[in-house]
């Protein structure tokens, strides 16, 4: 469950509709986990190009002369085969496959518009395209079959990312929102808090409001160290034990809810830092106790 007061979440009905659409397309065009968005575009006579467009956008879907064309910005996605490039391409495919998006472009009611992908935009249309991209690259059945076998935390997230060809951000959000385990992820930009995502189990256990200011982070915490740009371990991320009260302001120190969490943090380069939190032992019951 996403928690961001500045971003409107999709309804469960809309998520289900888009998820089923993406799953259908994945099954139709690929029998392996590593989806090829370019092949899907070619099968639909959608042309595409990669170029340097400064910082203007990640991707853009244009409709001209009854044809569709996808632009991908190498300045923002780095390489044509990078996880961000793949997500961006699938995001633009989302604008094509989601009927309302495609029809608006075909009718001329809306012009081609630049997209910021991987959950950087609060625009509901962009959120829908992001959700489509995530589910196309990680179709539900295939994702659950693989993700349930990996270790909780960034060690497992890395395996998911490599298997499906997605970024750490995309894999983390998909893992958290699939409610496979009790966890929370918090995204930090270079200038501060960006958003967080809570698993349904974490939300129901009432671990909701988290730290949103960097100066409230313990100075030696994994997240603070990642934000300072320190070198991480061979694992590629920082890790340490912490308490619920250190991260969730409404949890009273020493109370039965002040359980031990494992905090991991990984640098995303110019895109900031991602924090992954999960209880050290087991899941919660509905009162926030460990089972």
From TrEMBL:
Residue span of the signal peptide, if any? none
Instruction: Enumerate the InterPro entries for this protein.
Output: IrrE_HExxH (IPR010359), Rad_response_metalloprotease (IPR052345)
The IrrE N-terminal-like domain covers which part of the protein?
81-174
Q: What's one Pfam family the UniProt record gives for this protein? A: Peptidase_M78
Q: What is this protein called?
A: IrrE N-terminal-like domain-containing protein
């Amino acid at each position: 469950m996403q928690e961001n007061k500045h971003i409107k979440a999709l309804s469960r009905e809309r998520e289900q509709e888009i998820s089923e659409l993406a799953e259908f397309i994945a099954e139709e065009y690929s029998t392996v986990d590593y989806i090829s968005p370019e092949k899907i575009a070619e099968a639909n006579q959608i042309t595409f190009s990669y170029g340097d467009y400064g910082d203007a956008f990640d991707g853009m879907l244009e409709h001209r002369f009854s044809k569709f064309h996808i632009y991908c910005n190498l300045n923002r996605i780095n390489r044509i085969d990078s996880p961000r490039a793949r997500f961006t391409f699938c995001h633009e495919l989302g604008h094509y496959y989601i009927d309302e998006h495609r029809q608006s472009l075909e009718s001329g009611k809306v012009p081609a518009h630049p997209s910021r992908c991987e959950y950087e935009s609060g625009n509901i249309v962009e959120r829908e395209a992001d959700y489509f991209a995530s589910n196309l690259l990680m179709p539900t059945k295939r994702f659950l079959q693989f993700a349930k076998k990996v270790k909780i935390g960034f060690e497992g997230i890395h395996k998911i990312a490599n298997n499906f060809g997605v970024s750490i951000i995309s894999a983390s959000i998909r893992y958290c929102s699939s409610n496979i385990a009790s966890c929370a992820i918090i995204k930090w930009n270079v200038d501060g808090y960006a958003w967080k995502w809570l698993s349904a189990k974490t939300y129901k256990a009432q671990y909701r409001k988290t730290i949103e200011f960097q100066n409230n982070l313990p100075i030696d915490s994994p997240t603070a160290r990642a934000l300072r740009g320190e070198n991480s371990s061979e694992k590629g991320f920082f890790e340490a034990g912490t308490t619920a009260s250190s991260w969730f302001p409404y949890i009273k120190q020493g109370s039965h809810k002040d359980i031990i969490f494992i905090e991991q943090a990984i640098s995303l380069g110019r895109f900031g830092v991602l924090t992954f939190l999960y209880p050290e032992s087991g899941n919660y019951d509905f009162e926030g106790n460990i089972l």
